[in-house]
Amino acid sequence: MDNVNNDRDSKQFVMMVDGEKAFIDYSFDGTDYKLLHAEVPAALRGKGVGERLVEQTFAKIAEEGKSAEARCSYVKHVAKSTGKWDDLVSY
Question: What is the mean pLDDT of the chain?
């Protein structure tokens, strides 16, 4: 299973799949992650990688006891479609 890692140096939540890097760029103010942009390589699109990336990013943020602000339209879409992260994510 692929797992998301928080690369604090590059300010990205990163998931490696088949040697390809999918990621979400963020800014962080000490309490709140602002999720700015999600990127999935063309070779991985249409395989559910983006959704897994977002879901696992939310899980990682929850583990840290932090919250998230979804500024990326795709991240917003995934969050709103499940409703699972309503306590964690603001728009």
Answer: 95
